[in-house]
Amino acid sequence: MPGAASATNASRDDAVLKLENVSIALSATRTTMVHSVSLSIDRGEIFGLAGESGSGKTLLMRTLFGLHDDAIIESGRMTFKGAEISSSGHRKRVRKLLGHEIGFVPQDPFSSLNPTMRIGKQIREALYLGKGISPKSGEAGKIALDLLDEVGISEPELAVDQFPDQFSGGMRQRIVIAIALSQEPSILVADEPTTALDAFTQRRIINLIIERSRTRNLTVILISHNLELLRQNVDRIAVMYGGQLFNILDSGEISEGAAHPYTVALFNCIPRKDMTLGDIRSIPGEPLSAGYGLTGCAFSKRCGLRQDVCDSSLIPVNSALARSFDACLVKAGRQA
Amino acid sequence: MRYVLERIAFSLFALFILIFITFLLSHVVPGDPAIAAAGPNAGAEKIQLIRERMGLDQPFHVQFLTYGSKVLAGDFGTSWFTHQPIADDIMRELPPSLELVVLAMLINLVISFPVGLIAARYHGSSFDNGVRVVAIAGAGLPIFWTAILLQQKVAADWQLFPVAGRLSFAYRDFEGATGFYLFDSLAQARLDVFLDLIMHMFLPALALSLLFTAVGVRITRTSMISEFRKDYVVMARAKGASEARIMFRHVFRNGATPSLTVFGMQFGWMLGATVLVEEIFGRPGIGRYAVKAVTQSDIHAVVGVVLVVGLVFVISNMAIDLILFAINPRKARED
Asked: Would the pTM count as exceeding 0.90?
């Protein structure tokens, strides 16, 4: 497992990001979409956030980092590098960290670069905003060329004068990563960075993010619906469903019994090398959108282990910020 | 460069079509021009003579070529009523109208872009909702009604602006080299005349622009809203860009294309609509001239006006295409 050892050895005080019972609500209707998420991510850790579309993973991350206009932190505490970022005026405060402490790689490389701005200018703007380096200076130009070279763009001298539509999706995502790295953030949030790309390019982009982060001791939050991709690349994985946090586990621990039933079900949906066609099992029923609430497990109607307790009890929350966490009510009952 | 040449060639082609259509226009008008020109008492011989002199006995394509070359040389013929060369009439009437349209267009741009942009940024806010309601209402205002209302209230009742005319009586002797008095007054360092001109133009220009501004705000708002939803805005925010930087450096450039295209066409439409405000505010101009020409069945004058308005339309659209190309070379080519 790449880098798993370094993550397990890290002490809790080394946390870059701590969330304690964080709930996210839509600002217009005040509907709570994500409920009581508690987790702690260590410095230098590669952390995966998994879940189906609508599970609340992107909403959670975008709201935490001030990139979502229509949602707010309703309750809970967010601590970034030891300093609490209070819920009142959260967006304003956290936006001050964007560009130098927090970097972001959006999902769609085809729209995440400004189509009317040359590549070089977009990198120089990031250098200016993140590190105050004048966009016209020779230093900015040189850093831009070095970064493009580092992320694998051939002929960077040519690339800086080109527009985004002159590059393929994979190349554009490399440029986006170069922009994010240029600001030397403490934490890099990559929101489904490979979903729009073909399988081969996916692997190369993920490798690039992981490799660059390891050399810079950068903390990465990799958001993806692809559990297998996360299992292969990250240290720990958090799994969300219906706006609830179901599971946090080391990426090597995904197996029947060790993981939440939903994590196992999600994992079994993804074709892997060791599987035959019959092994791939879809999850029965329809996926649920975020905003389910805390009473009852959001997954109970689709779960093979369902018992009465699953619909009536409050699901466990990870208030203790444990490194591993399982919100399955059935398993909790067995242990009790 | 190739794109620029293409656009110019396209505009020339549009101009050719325009000339052809106006040529057909002067041919489909009922009645024989030779009989009309010869007068009621002319004999068959004289009519024939005039027909030959007017070139009406020539084949269709020869007539068209003669007409085309005359038009290109700026010869639109002589008015049946003023007995002046139509080109001279138009050169006298066009500048005040163009000045009016330019001012109306400025009002349009100064309101449409910022209001549309800010409404889009704060999409769904009470400001945005207010803008939407006002824009819908504004787009339904007939120009003549706005003009009469402004003239009655702001000019006549409140006496904030002159009621009618192009210049005050005191400046009746003012003359300029170009006919564009705003330019001429500045060239002669006559600031008093310049301000007097602006005071006379403001209400007509406002009346002319309101409907177009309402449309401009709506189009700008809609295209900017879709830009704000794109990931490059999230990316810019993640880079630490301020909202002002995101709006003006990133979104504006990308979202301005549809608005600019519409503004290019609006310029031509406005010139066509000047007739309404020129009649109400008693201003000289191409619009009033056209109405007079139509009511007097002065077909050559009508054709001349159509040609000139069409020419302005073609030029303004070409200018917009070139501006769009300068802003975003790749996208302009796709469109």
From this structure: no
